[in-house]
Amino acid sequence: MKLKLHLFLIIVVAIIFANTSNATTYTAIASGAWNAAGTWDANGVPDNSGTGDVVIPNLDTVTININFNINNLTVGGGSSGGLQFAKTDSFSVVINGNLLVNTGAIFKVQTNTISGSVGVAHKMELKGNLTNNGSVFDFRSGTAGSTLSVCNLLLSGTSNCTMISSPAYSGTSGDFNSVTINKTGGAKVILGSNIAMSGGSSAGNPNCNTTLTFISGIIETGSYIWICQTSTAVNVVGYSSASYINGAMGRGMSNTVGSSKDFPVGDANGYELFTLRSTTSGLATGHYAIVRCIPGNANTGSSSFTNGIDKVSQVRYYQVSYNQLLGSGATNMSFDRFWPSYTYDDGVSQGNTNLRVAYSTNNRATWSGMNQLALPHTTKHSMTPPTQIKPDSLLPTGVGINLTSGGNSIYFALARVTGTTENTLQTSVVLHPTVLIEAMYVAGGTAMLMTPSVTVELHDASTYALVESQTSTLTTLGVGYFTFSTAVNGSPYYIVVKSPNTVETWSATTHSFASSFLTYNFSTGLGQAYTDGSNPSLALHGSMYCIYSGDVNHDGYVTGDDYTGVDNDNTNFDYHVANDVNGDSYVTGDDYTFIDNNNTLFVQRQVPPGAPSFVAKRVINNQVQHNSSVK
């Protein structure tokens, strides 16, 4: 019986393998319509199952006149061959595998001949690689508002795809219309050459407009550029931390006047929006400004600093340049506004006014700080969208810096005010905790009475060793931001909270940063903090969970010893923040309350076994409490 079952399974697997590895190949044998039997070999018209491969050899040209769904598509045999959309209707095609247009071949749309047409938009969904070596690759042809035909490209699927268009760009070579990026499962679009989207008129059918739409997935340009020639600002849409350009983007600015454009660029670690304003005309469609995000240290190692800054970003910087493309655009263009952005990994501390932008016109040898007078900036963390810092325009306003096509570049980086240190400008992660301090929360009713200073530590998941410690303030609602420069994405850490008069509190389990960010809320339940069973992990007041108050002397217990400092300040009308347990800015009898309560409850520090400890146990004899220290 077992042998029969074994043989049956072998046969089933063999059948499945045979069916998946022997997909039908449909080869054109004559020029003609896609749906005509005489166009194809003995296998007939491609079956629309999505698994068949299609080959159009030299000399034959096939006209797409139906919707179809295939696997791989090869156009041309190395010297000629062609594929074109029909002139009389719009069609949708799906290519589940790769598209290859060989040397000398043609793949194009044709101007439409539909009476009264305002434009025809074909669609092509591609899940694999696109390689164009052909003599003509033209997805936009005709007059906008009448004879125009376009093919809009959707890049989808769950695997990376590479785009290469090797012939020199022209209006009929490597000319894409709209492109939508919708890669899922972490898949990317990877460039093997510059890719250029057309910049034609937007008159007529709006579906014919040249639009770059981001839904999901990243375009990774490497040393190349994704070029969007359209000068219409709204024709680049949907960009976010989940879908942007990792590397360089080119955008048409304006053919008549200066204009402002957003460049959704970033690097492998995240999305950083950059806004650029030109002050002169590009004269004709085809020109484009380029913003490239470059990961790494903006300081060459010997850079000098002027105009009030003493450090530039060690995380990333930007290169801005200009190109007239086909030669019909302006030979140079001037720019005066440069607005970069930042997010959690940029080494920017929350809530300060000492962040600046610097620029360099000599290949980063000298960095000059930009003024921040018109729009003073207080740092704030955000990812969707990243936070933009908007320095004053470079003088003279309306003129700025002139860039020559294919020539000079200008560089930009985050910088900090001379003598300040809160913005490290080095690779970092940000923890966004919510922590309520018991006595301060109860005294405040619905929020803490003060904005307390707390220290947050990250401890290694295995050894419990301290990785990094940062001190910052919480809002009265317990919300804070803590920037760490040693911790990294993907590594698990215990989160430990300390303050001048609370019991040290550990997170219940370890947690990891993702995209340089981690949020953690201690106030939502007992399960948020670690407990060894000696006490509930947190104190419940109303519906909120708080870390225990009362450990004024930081020995790990709330005991009679913690009264001492409070009693001294109360008697002498003195004030030390550690003794102001309830945060009302006075040290009085009210501050005894939580020491007394938590002393009665035997509240103590609770940590995982093996965690660093300066206190071994609490010995209770005859109602007298003692502390025993061990190393």
What's the number of helices? 4
Radius of gyration: 32 Å
What is the rounded distance between the termini?
67 Å
Could you say which overall geometry the principal axes of the C-alpha atoms support? elongated
- Pick out the low-confidence regions: 1-7, 9-20, 615-631
Describe the protein's architecture and organization.
By secondary structure, the chain is mainly beta. The chain has 2 domains: 47-417, no CATH class; 429-629, Immunoglobulin-like (Sandwich). 7% of the residues lie in helices and 37% in strands. The protein is built from 4 helices and 51 strands. It has a 16-stranded mixed sheet that branches. It has a 13-stranded mixed sheet with strand order 1-3-6-9-12-16-19-22-25-27-28-33-38, with no helix packed on it. Strands 5, 8, 11, 14, 15, 18, 21 and 24 form an 8-stranded mixed sheet that branches. The protein is elongated.
Brief sketch in words of this structure:
With 631 residues, this protein is mainly beta.
List the defining traits of the structure above.
631 residues, 4 helices, mainly beta, 16-stranded mixed sheet, 13-stranded mixed sheet, Immunoglobulin-like
List the helices and strands and how they pair.
Elements: H1 2-21, E1 25-27, E2 32-33, E3 53-56, E4 61-64, E5 68-70, E6 73-75, E7 82-85, E8 92-95, E9 99-101, E10 106-108, E11 120-126, E12 130-132, E13 136-138, E14 140-141, E15 149-157, E16 161-165, E17 173-176, E18 179-183, E19 188-191, E20 195-197, E21 212-216, E22 218-220, E23 226-228, E24 236-237, E25 245-246, E26 248-251, E27 260-267, E28 270-278, E29 288-295, E30 304-306, E31 309-312, E32 316-323, E33 332-339, E34 341-342, E35 355-360, E36 366-369, E37 387-388, E38 401-404, E39 410-417, E40 429-434, H2 438-444, E41 453-460, E42 466-473, E43 482-484, E44 492-498, E45 505-506, E46 511-512, E47 517-521, E48 539-541, E49 544-546, H3 563-572, H4 592-600, E50 615-621, E51 624-629
Parallel strand pairs: 1-3, 2-4, 3-6, 4-7, 5-8, 6-9, 7-10, 8-11, 9-12, 10-13, 11-15, 12-16, 13-17, 15-18, 16-19, 17-20, 18-21, 19-22, 20-23, 21-24, 22-25, 23-26, 25-27, 30-36, 40-47
Antiparallel strand pairs: 14-15, 26-29, 27-28, 28-33, 29-32, 31-39, 32-39, 33-38, 34-37, 35-36, 35-39, 40-43, 41-42, 41-44, 44-45, 44-46, 48-49, 50-51
